[in-house]
Write a structure and sequence with these properties.
Layout lengths: L2 E4 L4 E4 L1 H10 L5 H12 L16 H4 L3 H21 L4 H21 L6 H18 L9 H29 L14 H18 L58 H4 L4
Length: about 270
């Protein structure tokens, strides 16, 4: 039962004991599905077909989909590689984190009975990677070249975390297709109608924009009733930067506004 996958970057061996432990926690954990999805992630070397040519507001980038998940994952892989370029001593920690991240995403994609607890595992993997990276770096004097490099390094890692979360969210959402009542009628108008019921509660919970660098509050529900066609530009109920830093990922893409759509669209119309 021990599974071995050979990738272009390095050989990855998963001990049988690890898989047995996972199955002890999730009796229905699907190993064949896990192996298939892991291989798909491990062999992803380029953005999906025509991704470089698509517009910023292309539907493949503005809605949850396998296409967006694959594009996000390519960003994650390129950002992992960028970390080793800036600091070769981080190579071992980065390779281990990339492997573990692939395992987590593969579990979320279809192998695990319930994918949501694996979000906690993903954050642990990313935190563990960052702590390992920090151990390879010495102190840097303020204003020094080393400090400037550390800022760049930190920006790359933040972008990596953003797109890793975007990959995970897409992996979870696409497991739950749109309901039959919504399929074929998923329009801005129908979405606005359902938003009326949710927006007030989410606004009351946290009216700030999802982007921490934005100081504006979201539109007051009383002033935008029935005019919520623009809602996918915002996130409510969470203080999370979906946008990230375009400059930090410019070497990968220039046509991605954010790593994933507003989480509200993951709720509306799903089974």
């Amino acid at each position: 039962m021990c599974a071995i996958w050979h990738t272009a970057s390095h050989d990855t061996i998963f001990a049988e004991s690890t898989l047995i432990y996972v199955q002890s926690l999730d009796k229905a954990f699907a190993l064949p599905t896990f192996a298939k999805d892991f291989k798909s992630l491990a062999t992803r070397k380029a953005r999906p077909t025509d991704a470089d040519k698509r517009d910023l507001k292309d539907s493949r980038f503005t809605g949850f989909s396998l296409y967006q998940m694959n594009d996000n994952w390519l960003h994650v892989r390129k950002l992992f590689s960028a970390l080793t370029v800036y600091k070769s001593s981080t190579s071992a920690a980065v390779q281990a984190a990339e492997r573990d991240t692939m395992m987590v995403i593969a579990a979320m994609k279809g192998a695990a009975t319930d994918p949501t607890p694996w979000l906690l595992v993903l954050d642990y993997v990313l935190r563990d990677c960052w702590q390992a990276i920090l151990k390879t770096q010495g102190s840097a004097a303020q204003g020094s070249i080393e400090e400037d490099a550390r800022v760049i390094f930190s920006n790359i890692f933040s972008e990596l975390c953003l797109f890793a979360h975007g990959t995970a969210v897409n992996a979870i959402v696409i497991r739950y297709p749109l309901s039959a009542q919504v399929t074929g009628s998923y329009t801005p108008e129908s979405m606005a109608k359902h938003l009326d019921a949710w927006y007030q509660m989410l606004y009351d919970f946290d009216p700030r924009c999802a982007n921490p660098s934005c100081l504006r509050l979201l539109p007051n529900p009383s002033t935008v009733k029935g005019k919520l066609k623009f809602r996918t530009l915002f996130s409510v109920g969470t203080r999370q930067a979906r946008v990230g830093k375009h400059g930090s990922r410019a070497f990968i893409s220039t046509n991605r506004l954010y790593a994933h759509p507003c989480l509200y669209t993951a709720i509306y119309g799903r089974k």
